[in-house]
Design a protein that fits this description.
single chain; about 280 residues; alpha/beta; Purple Acid Phosphatase, chain A, domain 2; about 30% helix; binds fe (ii) ion
Length: about 280
Amino acid sequence: MRTNEFVRKDVIVPGLEKEYRILHITDSHVVMCNEKEGEYVIEGDGYWNGTKLIDFHNLRHNHFRVEGVPSSELFEKMCDELAANPDCADVIVFTGDILDFFSQSAFDFIKKNIDKLKTPYMFVIGNHDMIFSGKPESEMKKIFTALTGENPDLQKMKLGELTLIGVYNGPYHYPEKSLNDLVNALEGEDNVVLFQHVPLSTKEFHKYNADRNQPDWSIGDQGVCNGDGWKTVFDIVGADDTPVKAIICGDCHVEHESKLGNVPQYTSPLNANYPPYLYVIHS
Ligand SMILES: [Fe+2]
């Protein structure tokens, strides 16, 4: 990855006076555990229940290698390059699955590399980051506050005329706290770029998945519609006066663009295989 290899996406937000560059990194799927961590036997997950973590590691290590290079090395190299070029973007936003599964050594590894960055960043947790830890979610989220800041469910950052909001929807729905935090965070805002791991359902995205014989893991009536939280988010995004001007997500490992009402939604592909996407937001 070289910083001039970023894939540029232009996002139009009418009325903006300046231009803002947000570098999006999603689904790096760093696969890592040490010998002791590898002895852990996965429990509580239907399919992998009873599997030794090292066996899962070995499968995933091979799956995410690119031309023989492990995803962890690719991540480290990318962070070194970004650290050497801090002006490559105004903000870097991570939207989950930076870890393929949780181990303390993998977490320490990504934290060490993210700590090298001199560009401000926001970190949103995905569905993979916390799996197979053997610890309750509340404990895991405490660990992740080292990257998310004090609230692992919602981050908010001002970027000139924009407000960047990152919300946790990793479990393919909006947990009550995420949803409440989101509603509160949107209060009084008018130029919000919303970041989340899992995209919302759109007709185009559903068709895109159907055409490829892939399941639709987006949140909403055409994808995964657990709970009712998604209805609130659809209402907010679909309102004529919505403060949300764009949604940027990961999870599906492909590049896609569609619309919810007037609001564009972008998904960036697997960072293990592709360079980060640079969203340039202007009028
Ligand atoms: Fe992923």
